[in-house]
Amino acid sequence: MSFLEDAQKVIQKAQAQAQDVVSLHTQEEIDNWERELSLSYNNATHYEIRRALDAAIDRYGTTPDKKTFLDFMRIKLED
Predict the structure, then answer these.
(1) Would you tell me the crossing angle of helices 46-60 and 27-40 to the nearest 10 degrees?
(2) What confidence tens digit (pLDDT) does each residue in 45-66 have?
(3) What are the angstrom distances between the C-alpha of 58 and each of 5, 12, 37, 55, 63?
């Protein structure tokens, strides 16, 4: 990665923390959300949670609005 790309990621991450958005830029952030969602949705499998996260990233990008993201996850993961 170039210096410019690294700087843009740092800026995007800071902006995501300042706003009420979800950051899904790195694999670590995705893994953290997977753990959090597995606690909320006990019946959802690892595969279902990963598919839902991938679908959210495809639909909303890597910095979706938190409310929109959680509503989408609820629809995808509820029984």
Answers:
(1) 120
(2) 999 999 999 999 999 998 898 8
(3) 21, 18, 18, 5, 11
Q: Is the separation of the CB atoms in 57 and 15 below 8 Å?
A: no
Contact (Cβ atoms closer than 8 angstroms) between residue 37 and residue 73: yes
* Residue-wise DSSP of 3-29: HHHHHHHHHHHHHHHHTTB----SHHH
Q: Which of 56, 57, 61 has the alpha carbon at shortest distance from 71?
A: 56
Determine the Cα–Cα distance for residues 66 and 43; give it in Å rounded to an integer. Answer: 22
Q: Who contacts 66 (Cβ-Cβ below 8 Å, separation ≥6)?
A: 20, 21, 22
pTM of the shown model? 0.73
Joined tokens for residue 73: 């996850």
How many Å from the N-terminal Cα to the C-terminal Cα in the chain? 41
